[in-house]
Amino acid sequence: MGAFVISKRFNDEYKFVFTSRKGKVIFTSLSYELKFECEEDIEKFKVNIDQAKFLRFKGSGGKYFFKLMLGDVHFAISRKYTTELLLQKGIKEIVTYASRAEILDFASGESIFGDEEIPAEEIEE
User: Fold this and answer.
1) Nearest-CA neighbor of 39 among 19, 21, 14, 20?
2) Cβ contact 27:41 at 8 Å
3) pLDDT band for position 92 (50/70/90)?
4) Which has more pLDDT, 103 or 117?
5) Can you tell me whether residue 23 is helix, strand or coil?
6) Domains of the chain: which residue ranges?
7) Which numeric CATH code is attached to 3-108?
């Protein structure tokens, strides 16, 4: 169904990505100083998806991408696509699934598997 994934950038600011049902990043948000701003913008986007505009571009390397606008505000930028058809499929994924996508928070940097170490002799090669 797709998901919004919140994480931290190297400069300690927050961002989120929207991933497809297959886990591929479709777009990345701008930076946020505080995590709750990130969460608020995701919720605002989910509610106002009908106001989203997708400005399509072709880069100098021949790849396609879009800038996502919410009203008149630049909201996010897409990954690069090799064809216009793949770009359109990415947009369709957003329109179809974003309003009901879950939010995953990986901003804390904590391992979801815990800190337990596995002895080297137990690791199979």
Assistant:
1) 14
2) no
3) very high
4) 103
5) coil
6) 3-108
7) 2.30.29.80
